[in-house]
Amino acid sequence: MRAEPRFRDQIRCLVLKDRRARALDEALSPADRIAFNDFLVSVVAVLLAPRLGDRCDAEDLAAFSDEVAARHRGERRPVNEFVVEEVLRHVYGVPPLFRTVPVPPPAMSAAGAAIVRYLNTTDAGIAPDIDRILDTADDLHRRRTRR
Amino acid sequence: MTIPEVGTALRQSLERHRFSLRPEPDARPGEETVHVVLDHGGETFHAGHVDHHLGLWCAFAVVRAHGVFRSDEFGQYESFEDAVLAVLMSFTHVE
User: Fold this and answer.
1) B83: which of A33, A63, A132, B57 fits an S-S bond (Cβ 3.0–4.6 Å)?
2) Residues near A64 by Cβ (< 8 Å), separated by ≥ 6?
């Protein structure tokens, strides 16, 4: 299944620091948000591959989530390393921590956005290449959701 | 008070992120409060707490950086572990 164009647009706006990102996020219905979060997992997977590779253990995921959280706290942005890690657990197929008490979908969106923002801030190559990255994420997403 | 046991997955996750569970110091008899804290660089930061009240564990998480009341309640749970998980998924700031 292809990601909806508005989901791609939302992530593009996030990376390019376009103010429409927030409006697009707020316009998501509860059902849209579930679908958006699933696409966000594909985007995070594509962005993380050069950094963490395609295999990661729980220690690596925790360390990276702490890195994301520390950077955001330093900028006085709200963040939660456990929910950031929950997104990463989806990417790497590690069993979720929040099994009995599921994370609210808006919190998963915010955590996914924090990862994208962190990677974008620390890698100047992402913004100019965002359209190709989104194409790759779209291909991955279609393969993931075909199963 | 004795802190109730939590499962291995949660315990290991807390350790990996340098979080720990600490009982309320100087708790009065009958009061059961466990704090969720982050140990970072020799400093301790508070992310929330759970209170045992009328047989349920109430989860409170820090969600504001400023103001007198920085925590909100995020549900009541029969299980101590679920209440701790609710704090861990809900806090957005540490104080």
Assistant:
1) B57
2) A51, A52, A56, A88
